User: Which sequence fits this backbone?
């Protein structure tokens, strides 16, 4: 399609409720499948042994860092592409997309080499349990050493989202997750003639699922995403564009990397009590993803809408989608809170929890879930900051929540009180995060969104 025959994208004209549903439901469905995969993956690993579950829990910061780098780059490209499509600057949108692909490939190479070389010392820092160390190294070297598909998949899915094709993005994500779920028991337990690979089998199933999703995402972008054209010949590498991508994406990367630091720190705090406490924390993270992933899907559906309409200077549409997204997030989180309060033992039972794990985990899930509703509000706010080019505000919120409040509180409570008190660091940190989000949102409305009424 030529640049002169482009028509108005649905993000600029479709009624807000219908548009948010149209953009978000596919993303929410794919995120639910992804969350289901995360839980099923850990259920199978937990059935090997508690040491295996602890090893995967210790490996989570490494995985989270890879996800941070892959998705963070995609977030920066997504927001810029959507904004320039809204402003009808199609050539620049294509150049940004092309540069984003190059960045994703380069970053995956650096991450692969780093994980393969340094995962041994990483696990030995946390524990002297040789079984956990062996399982952890097996898992990390496969997932990290073969992370190329993860980076390509994440980037190309963001390109589909940036043009409003969230259904196609959903298909690629679901393909990877379903492939993973099918292969998990086969490779972990050695079914149908496959060798029994245990934790390494879970890692290999993950990589194969990501590879299938990446291949499908390439096909979707080449043949279905007509508003974008990635070409190394037509759109050369530009340091200026890279700078603009990371002006938005780097705060997102650091935000998710901060989550890795938080997990790293929490594993260290909890490991002083027992490896079982670390297993509980790992199980919680898998379980909470089933609640948070739909909100993140809603969030991903909202982000390009806000960015597009900010570029098109339509303040009513910006406000409308943000308000509706907050309401949706609160509803989802309310359901999640009730599940964690009423059925904590049953949820932990999915991971073959021992009596000791249940004794630690039941009060932990009930305490931590008290912050879910507030977290839903904060997630939508931080995404709104990113979509309008204020990734630094999102970064400040994330760093304040996880490094300035959560980890110090966890360390202090672990030092002064018993293990059950440590879990209160989550609701305390989330209240501080929501207060900061409210201050930043009021500033953004006053200085950037409301003035659009006088210029649109």
Assistant:
């Amino acid at each position: 399609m030529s640049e002169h025959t482009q028509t108005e994208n649905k993000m600029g004209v479709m009624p807000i409720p219908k548009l948010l549903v149209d953009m978000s439901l596919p993303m929410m469905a794919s995120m639910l499948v992804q969350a289901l995969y995360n839980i099923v993956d850990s259920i199978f690993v937990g059935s090997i042994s508690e040491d295996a579950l602890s090893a995967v829990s210790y490996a989570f910061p490494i995985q989270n860092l890879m996800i941070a780098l892959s998705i963070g780059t995609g977030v920066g490209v997504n927001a810029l592409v959507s904004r320039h499509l809204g402003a009808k600057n199609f050539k620049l949108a294509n150049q940004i997309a092309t540069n984003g692909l190059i960045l994703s490939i380069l970053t995956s190479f650096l991450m692969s080499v780093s994980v393969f070389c340094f995962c041994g010392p990483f696990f030995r820092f946390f524990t002297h349990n040789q079984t956990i160390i062996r399982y952890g190294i097996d898992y990390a070297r496969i997932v990290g050493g073969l992370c190329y598909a993860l980076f390509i998949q994440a980037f190309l899915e963001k390109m589909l989202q940036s043009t409003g094709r969230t259904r196609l993005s959903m298909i690629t994500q679901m393909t990877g997750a379903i492939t993973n779920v099918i292969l998990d028991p086969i490779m972990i337990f050695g079914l149908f003639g496959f060798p029994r690979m245990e934790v390494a089998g879970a890692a290999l199933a993950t990589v194969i699922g990501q590879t299938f999703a990446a291949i499908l995402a390439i096909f979707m972008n080449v043949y279905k995403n007509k508003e974008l054209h990635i070409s190394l010949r037509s759109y050369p590498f530009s340091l200026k564009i890279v700078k603009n991508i990371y002006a938005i994406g780097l705060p997102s990367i650091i935000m998710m990397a901060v989550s890795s630091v938080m997990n790293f720190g929490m594993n260290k705090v909890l490991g002083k009590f027992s490896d079982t406490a670390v297993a509980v924390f790992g199980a919680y993270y898998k379980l909470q993803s089933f609640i948070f992933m739909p909100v993140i899907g809603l969030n991903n559906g909202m982000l390009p809408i806000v960015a597009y309409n900010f570029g098109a200077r339509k303040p009513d549409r910006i406000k409308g989608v943000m308000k509706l997204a907050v309401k949706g997030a609160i509803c989802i989180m309310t359901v999640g809170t009730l599940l964690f309060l009423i059925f904590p033992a049953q949820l932990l039972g999915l991971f073959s929890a021992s009596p000791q794990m249940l004794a630690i985990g039941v009060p932990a899930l009930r305490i931590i879930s008290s912050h879910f509703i507030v977290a839903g509000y904060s997630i939508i706010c931080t995404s709104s900051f990113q979509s309008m080019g204020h990734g630094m505000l999102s970064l400040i919120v994330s760093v304040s929540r996880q490094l300035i409040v959560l980890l110090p509180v966890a360390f202090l409570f672990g030092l002064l009180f018993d293990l059950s008190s440590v879990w209160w660091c989550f609701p305390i940190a989330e209240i501080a995060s929501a207060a900061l989000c409210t201050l930043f949102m009021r500033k953004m409305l006053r200085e950037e969104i409301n003035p659009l009424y006088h210029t649109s």
Summary: Residues 1 and 151 are 27 Å apart (CA to CA). Residues 13-454 form one domain. The mean pLDDT is 85.
